Amino acid sequence: MDYLYQNGYSQNRELSWLRFNDRVLSEAMDESVPLLERLKFIAIFSSNLDEFFMIRVGSLFDILHGDPDMIDSKSGMTPRQQLDHIFETVRPLYRKQEALFSEVEQQLRLHDICCLGYKELAKNERACVKQYYEASIAPVLSPQIVDVQHPFPHLANKVIHIGVMLKHKNREIFGVIPLPDALPDVFYLPGSEIRYLHTASIILEYADKLFHPYEVLEKVIFTVTRNADVNPDDDIFADETDFRQRMKKVLNRRSRLAPVRLELSHKISASFAVYLKEKLNLADNQIYTTSAPLKMGYVYGLISKVPKGKRDALVYPPFTPVWPVSIRRGESMLHQIERGDILLSYPYESMEPFLHLLKEASTDPSVISIKITIYRLAGKAKLVEHLCNAAENGKSVTVLIELRARFDEQNNIDWSERLEEAGCNILYGFDSFKVHSKVCLITRKVRSGVQYITQVGTGNYNENTAKLYTDLSLMTANQQIGQDAAAFFKNLSIGNLYGEYHTLLVAPVTLKSTLLKLMDEEIAKGENGRIVVKINSMTDAELIAKLSEASCAGVKITMVIRGICCLLPGIPGRTENIRISSIVGRYLEHSRIYCFGTGREEKMYISSADFMTRNTERRVEVACPIYDSRVREKIHQILEAEEYDTLKARVLQPDGTYVQKDPMRSPLDSQQFLMEDAERRQGTEQRAERKSSSLGQAFQKLRELLGRRS
Q1: pTM for the full model?
Q2: Of 165, 273, 415, 642, which residue is least crowded by CB atoms under 10 Å?
């Protein structure tokens, strides 16, 4: 199809993502966000950027080497031009992160939480650090020099290293010390206050002693980021051995791919920089210097160290997902689902009802089989226990577990082995297509034959992220949906990607074609057409072009897109009827909802798929229709709360930037509102004292609005 950039209503995917990550960092600027939560947003920004370089920048380098003249359909840029724009855009983000980290750390010191440099230590504290270094650090370090007998070592991906330039007999030698995995990232000094040093800064201080008798000319903390985008077409995937063994090889290979970025703790001499550039084959624009920590995973452990009384003032008020009032505790979940569809809205409502359903199914004599697709799981998972119990109780349990869920591969390998040991039938999906769907099918034997109970979700079966991500989980006894789910699992088990379905939309078969058809139906209505979409990302060129066509036809289009958005709204004559907002807040917005039309004619789906080509064409995804009127109303309330959000939502502009919604409107945080609404429905009184009167008035106004729809 025609390049979108020629029509002037699209933007580059990578630059769009960087704007999203800038929005994550901006949450750390918000003084209404508690201090430790602001620090956490800086850490999230940092880990996001790490993954971006490993995957997206790594992928662009692969394209550059394979097809340097390839043109990006959204921006018209070559791979080299995209990389140059990325490197230029990232540099000011480092400066922003650096300034924010310094500001937040200074404010934390007022609460006796201090990240210290070695020079700040008192005499007795230096003695304590020395004792710790000699007893716990020095014995596990492996310093190395580089000379004729000692080749330049492999510098593992995102491992902290200490680099030193040494002098010995009038010649300069490079030395390096990797930070071992066995060492913690930070060392906490004894005492009632929380005072700590980064382990790397301790090693940096003692580097002179480690390399004695060499003279240390200069030293720096650094980390190398490597390409982690392993291509499924590589020879390693042609290996005919067990898929688990192949994935273990992939994980080992990933750690050795080419460097794409070098981060330094401070500026180094030109000669030192040239040495590292040449050894790592990097250009100047791939080197970044920052005084912020090069790895920030320690932040989560730091928060747990803070005493509860002090922590309560520095983190979000605690919230526990509620048990939905529509579900009766102690009553059979199977019977309740038979009476009507049930929708769980995470993290406001608990995942426990679904886990109760699986636990009940594992022992119910009428249940003959359980089938499920798994993409990501928590490190500890009740879900796995229930599936294993079901298999041990004689149920037929089939688990399709995707071993290529990026950065969760090893966890999924471990769980697949545990499930297999319990007697579950394990499938690994397709060589060229990741299985990203979230579907569970329970089959019961009843008098009339078989009965299907189907669960379809927008997010993973991860019991930890269900408390952190906004997702939807539908449980239904609709037999048409169940029959489609049964056909879906049959097709997965025989390696058939192209089955027929009547209600479910399944990628790569019917999802995209049906979405385009539904958009055409709205286009035919002209100004009476209506499309509402909530997704995480949008890059699919055909869907973008169709939405532009719908806008030109007068269709009113409202979209909530958290991250990447290659579609630019508000372009006269192209996308002027499209309004796009993005919400970044306490929870990660993750649910996918598609709505076409209004009133009784509206067609509504929840899905595992974003509007990305990888989802619509190269993954196995499922979208499920919503038929139950109560469930539809509940989803509408979520969408309306997000539409009225003025505190955490930002509106995407025609130039790709984001601006806050009209400040004259009443302030509303949709996530806070939905938390309060969940508590209110449960009858709790835990919220009023935490809220300002203006925010409370906004909540009440929205409740009245939503109440009129109930």
Answers
A1: 0.90
A2: 273
